[in-house]
Amino acid sequence: MPRYTVHVRGEWLAVPCRDAQLTVGWLGREAIKRYVKNKPDNGGFASVDDVRFLVRRCKGLGLLDDEDPLQVALEDNEFVEVVIEGDAMSPDFIPSQPEGVYLYSKYREPEKYIALDGDSLTTEDLVNLGKGHYKIKLTPTAEKKVQKSREVIDSIIKEKTVVYGITTGFGKFARTIIPVNKLEELQVNLVRSHSSGVGKPLIPERCRMLLALRINVLAKGYSGISLETLKQVIEVFNASCLPYVPEKGTVGASGDLAPLSHLALGLIGEGKMWSPKSGWADAKYVLEAHGLKPVVLKPKEGLALINGTQMITSLGCEAVERASAIARQADIVAALTLEVLKGTTKAFDTDIHAVRPHRGQVEVAFRFRSLLDSDHHPSEIAESHRFCDRVQDAYTLRCCPQVHGVVNDTIAFVKNIITTELNSATDNPVSFDCLLNCSYRNQAVSENKALCHPSSVDSLSTSAATEDHVSMGGWAARKALRVIEHVEQVLAIELLAACQGIEFLRPLRTTTPLEKVYDLVRSVVRPWIKDRFMAPDIEAAHRLLLEQKVWEVAAPYIEKYRMEHIPESRPVSPTAFSLEFLHKNFIKIPESGDL
């Protein structure tokens, strides 16, 4: 029997439908009847039959026609809103489509699984989990570790041992002993009291990353959560039921207490929750619509769910993956820029970079050589100025390996730190199979502050001064994402400018890989013949970079060059030289002190 979840004036009602031929209008009126039945004053209505109303989907807010059959207009278990004439849409009702989400109308439940063990998650894995490419399962080893960890907690409770956060209060109340019959209530109150974030909710991709990362940390087997509860959390993730987690509120004290508390609040069936199927609704109804039950917290489990750095780390993970993607594509765009400005390739010669072999610099120079004029990929544009009298290009062109290279090295450094943090337990207390460490906290991710003005200089005292210095890591991660987005937009503009430069050099052609990049851009942005509104073009180019399309087009040529590279055989410009040329002609290379 089909069933629908209907929102009427702040109440959620489950309405079964015995006849699929019944209409949308019937559903609205039946929901109002059920709403009125529970109100002492009939909800203020003299007669339900006289009530005028509209029915709209919760997902997308599209209006429905009263006369449409339910089997045509709605899917089983779909969520709808009844808006009564004279009412505004319910003040506690959240728009169904989170900001920035444009693909969820095409959401398809993933079929592949990724096995988490708490030790081997990568930044790429987490981003793919955020995009909904995988469901989650635990490895057998992780299940055993989780069970052993929980046995320690159960033993503490049975023996009435005094341990912080399990049988005591938190923060300033660490010396307050909690009676055994209040331990479960303590965990629920902890989650509720710390759900104090503000601002817009995290977009689904980021909320999925946050939830997936917390599952990975719990899978390490040091948090004391029960296997039963952890599997419930995994079921929620696999159903793509995402709690309302405000993006603001964490200061990095004891990790990300506020956002993780909002995450846990949804898991216990309180607050709001979103899924591709339901849009935003009360968490308990979203869970119920997916055949799930709210989590019932056991002792220590509330603390296990909220005590960690997963908000900071998941946003940092997205930042580093996007930075890595944009850094690779920046090399391609810069090569295209150099080509249209008729620059020389000799600044990227192997010998030059062999004498200063920073890893990132050497790799960027290699990418330039693989994309620009060579025996592999001749360029008519390069041939047109091969014997010109220009000695060298501007810093912005010839120093790309040095500038881009250090960016690549920095990204690799940060990625290593974040990967460590992805697989680190940051609970307090930490449960081992033989002891408890009540002071452990991993702060490695704070080294990210060197990338820009440190957010940590604005530290504030929290928790009645028991946490008197905090990292402000959440704000730092959000700033990093903002910086990366700006870089992506600037690079999109450079990509458009370089492709427009190609137009002025026609009919000459550039190298095969750069022609492929040009064709890609022209598939979404036509050349400028006269002035026009540019914002849509910039956004289209930005989307190519965001989806790594530029890299996907050029990468096969870069790798082929890596595998098949042979020394250059053609003559070069007389203004260019190499170490090999100097040695052959016995020319003394000046010492640094002679320059």
UniProtKB/TrEMBL annotation:
Tagged with keyword 4Fe-4S: no
Protein's UniProt name: Histidine ammonia-lyase
Family as reported in the entry's similarity comment: Belongs to the PAL/histidase family.
BP-aspect Gene Ontology terms: L-histidine metabolic process
Keyword NAD in annotation: no
Gene3D superfamilies: Fumarase/aspartase (Central domain), Fumarase/aspartase (N-terminal domain), Phosphatidylinositol 3-kinase Catalytic Subunit, Chain A, domain 1
Single GO molecular function: ammonia-lyase activity
Gene symbol of the encoding locus: HAL
Protein keywords: Histidine metabolism
Organism: Puma concolor
A Pfam match: Lyase_aromatic
